[in-house]
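We read letters as residues; the fold follows as tokens. Both lines appear below.
***
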Amino acid sequence: MSVLHPAPLRADLAAADRTLVMGVVNVTPDSFSDGGRWFEPDAAIAHGLALIEQGADLVDVGGESTRPGAERVEPDEERARVLPVISALAAAGAVVSVDTTRAAVAADALEAGASVVNDVSGGLADPAMLGVVADAGVVYVAMHWRGPSDVMDALADYDDVVVDVRDELAARLDAAVAAGVRVEQVVLDPGLGFAKPGSDNWPLLAHLDALRALGRPVLIGASRKRFLGHLLAGPDGPAPPEARDEATVAVTALAAEAGAWCVRVHEVAGSADAVRVAAAWTAARTGGGRG
């Protein structure tokens, strides 16, 4: 497997010839996936360290829920939630990503020790974000986004979801480069579940080659998403978030085999195993062994 990594990335991660695993640390009271379990700073820090112990290559710290229908929090509240957690995890040696759409929060997070900015709006929510990333020179994850969480479900109108998402991500890549972001910094994310009904997520996963053709690493965030809950629905309705972890691991294995740079997951151990299985599988297929 030949993995295209963004730059700059810590040397041990940049040398990894496999898909990376990003563990999620939600410092919010209303996360769809964990119901606010890690809202208190000490709990969030302990959770982040546990994810690293379980095999996460980096951890993604967010202080604002992006679940469907979520309302925004004030910038000062977002800072208060994430900065102590980022500072403690970075001091412990973790590679930390900040999950924010706000340029000012991103700048403060980078000062606190984050080395990746994960922006679900791809720079559309805050025009200053691309300038912050360009000045800092850090890895920037630009996700496909059509609007805030409280309206995104009304924006899911596509002619061809793969072509449309690819083209809209290409436009965000062009905008980032025009703002001074080096192309090597940029990672693209198709935004599974964001302004996409369940059926639209599967073609994006099945055609990662179309996104990788843009020449940048791809991050996949399928973990515990609604479309997995609908796939696994039983007589009582969609499977709840924590019942979607095994399906998430299956997506991880398939995405890794398809060349994803990183998977963003809530439950790390299964995906940490899956990316190694995918790497061994691909190496055996490309390296021969039939004699």
